[in-house]
Specification:
The chain has 26 helices and 13 strands. With 650 residues, it is an alpha/beta fold. It has a 6-stranded mixed beta sheet with strand order 1-6-3-4-2-5, with helices on both faces. Strand 3 and strand 4 form a beta hairpin.
Amino acid sequence: MFNQAYEQKDVAALTVGQLFHNDHYTIPIYQRNYAWGQEQIEQLILDIWDVARNNRGDNHYFIGSLVVAQRGHNHFETIDGQQRHTTLSILLSVMKNAFSLPLPGIKGINLHFDCRVKSDATLSSLFETGRAPDDEDAVESSVLRAWKIMVSFIQKMDIDRSAFLRYLLENVVLLRVVVPADTDLNHYFEIMNNRGEQLEKHEILKARLMDKLGNGTGDSERAAFSIIWDACANMHRYVQLSVHHSLRNIWFGNDWNEIPQHFEKLLHPDLNKDQRETSRTLHDIIFHPKGDGTETAHSHHPDEEQPGTFGSVITFPNFLLQVLRLADRDTPLDDKRLLETFTANDPDPRQFIMQLLKCRMLFDRYIIKRENDDEWSLKALTRYEKSFSYTSSFPQSEKPSIRERNIPHNVNAIMLLSMFHVSFQAQIYKYWLNGALYWLNKYTQADRLNVNAREYLNYLENMANHFLLDRLSDHASEQNYDFEVLENTPTAFPSELDESPLHQGTGVQNYIFNRLDYLLWVNLKNKNHFDGVNMQYILKRAEKFTFTFRTSVEHYWPQNPLGNASRLEASQDLEKGADNFGNLCLISHSNNSKLSNHSPLAKKDHYEKSSYAESLKQVFMMSYDQWGPAAKDNIVHHKKMMVNVLLYRR
């Protein structure tokens, strides 16, 4: 247990085990509802396991503070930290019930919600029974969604669950701070939720790298470095548009498609006094933070005033690590370790900033993004004499091949890249993006943004197949990929497949479903016919398919069907029964929560009200007239068909 010598009267460092051992906590009504999503939940679990396995349980890991007011003996009102406390409560429930692990000394959840009956009922039921309340009207969907995210994620992790739980209880620490008894809690809560932002790590990193730039030309170098860094940091606009208009033609050519090759050539006289003053050292940042009135006024071009309209698949700190990883493939993609990772790697600032700029230009043009929070976009910044616009990164040729007529290169690339992106939501796992940047960086023709579309697509397809084969062999290892080796190693699918990784119910890897949906989409676009299914129904439902963030594995015939309906039991032809791959698809958590125990007919009726399909595999399942224990042949037929698609056997 944690050393009690650290505790004082109003401040206590508590392990998770101690936090849930004795005291009781109430979330007041003025606090917002539980709101953590998949990325935050998975990141917390990853962080804890990462520290646990690296420290071997020897050190404590602080995950934040819990600010409380005392209501009575061993009873506290939570002012700040309720999201983390609720997440830990759900996590303990998952370890206890989903994975049958004991919680020594913890008899129940010590968290209560003022005037939120559904939250109380759902959290209590999950801890006591591992199930949501039987009454659907008593279920708090956000809490149940978090439970399902955790179960699915931990099932798919290569993790010693007992060691993880032991470290969680004994070594993960929160700092509990009790505010004075006469504190105005409403006022304090308002202050806590309007705190000024702290200096970000990438701002500190920028200053550290700039401090390495030499004397003499140092001012011009720092100015150029600062302009490039700040332009790259705005992930919502194309990088050329974030550079001052007076420099764009000089740096990027008249069409803005030239990639600058040498840092020295950026040190142009137009890096005037105003622009040089934007290059701030670490001393400047600490003692003169932005907003203190010391910034220099700039003359702006109209397009520089416009906010960005594109949503990036990655944050700037993680993009920095992606670029660094091109030189060292052992670089972790964990932005919490941004400063220590760069300190260990110690890149030359001039070389790194040029690589950063090149990769950002490639990223803008050849990696998908969201445009105006709408559809996936893959567009090039196109310059005209007095204006600019966005056009397809891979425009269709005047005489397209038969293959390109069916699926234009730009559309194909969008589907492939979005397949990767939605499969790996946590930025720490976006190795596919590093693979794409590796190829783009290597094969960009000379100093121009000019990539061969078919060669890029072939490379992405090969990488996608390697990712799939790893999961079919139950061994996901892309973090160790040498992409130079991978691009020269065609995938070879086995003649006989061990299907056991497919028949794992909610433990089947999300990527397998997304890769299958992509391959089904390609087959349908190429007008390939599938026997034994209603092709007219499938083509109609699949017309508007696009990749969305789906993370919940659904059993089309439910594991626990409502009423007197029979369970789908395992048989010789139907391995694992309801957990068989033929009975599974990937959908959103919200839809799975609503319909998990309903019949296929009810699910089909629900999904047909939508104008688009969440899952192409699900569309194929819905095309059968019957499904379930009385129609096992259809499930087996569907499973064999899907495996053949995965292995390119059709």
